[in-house]
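Recap for those who missed Tuesday's class. We walked through two folding examples back to back. For each one, the amino acid string is listed first and its predicted structure tokens come directly after. Nothing is annotated here on purpose, so try labeling regions yourself before you check the end of the notes.
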Amino acid sequence: MKRRSTELVEALQMIDTTVDESAREQVMGWVREHYEARQGGTIVGMFQRCYLGAPYVDHKLDLVGNIVHHYAGSETVEFPYSQARGLVRSDAYAFIEIYSDGTLVPVRPDGTAIRMPG
């Protein structure tokens, strides 16, 4: 539950502002390396609000497949990312970490990780 770095929060915010595919892949690679270096649980990806504008409302970052997928509000989000969709609608969280064991860890804009009950 260690605080996430400012660099990590900023890198994830760049996903919507980076139009160059190779630059986006570099950001995703850096994020993946960041999580591997900290030796926590096995992270599958993140889910966060999308700032591209209509029709998109949120997006997933699949760190296993290096995929960014933007979702319109009417689209169905697949499991396990679907569990995080309600949380990202809150301004309280910058993104939600999704781990292979099903754990969701909401992260506030200042990098504070929140322990979910359960």
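Example two. Treat it independently of the first, because the proteins are unrelated.
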Amino acid sequence: MSDLLVHARMAAEKAYAPYSKFQVGCALETDVGGLYQGCNVENASYGLTICGERNAIFQAIAQEGPEMKIRHLAVVCLGHEFPPCGACRQVMAEFSLPGGLTKVTFLQAGEPVTRTMAQLLPEAFGL
């Protein structure tokens, strides 16, 4: 398992998910080599919940500034396997490398799968 997946799993173990029971963790490496983690944090008012991916991205921006770009992102959900949700994909696209070259790794059938942002969200919204 890649280092980013290990860090994502460690972040997932810290998730606050009393409602969905889906503990999601994310780890990302920025274009300048920063490493950031995030986990999902749920809320009784479900719309206020934050996904692990966005939590990690927002931490990276808080540390590196608005020009931060994601080189590689990994996501793990304890006991489940799925790629990032649509909302997270759109936020990831906003901070992706030019051409959608940011790599995204998640588990599928117990094995790591890596896709580019261009593959995960081919028609990302942009201004």
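Answers for example two:
Residues 70 and 96 are 5 Å apart (CA to CA).
Strands lie at 24-30, 35-39, 70-77, 103-108, 111-116.
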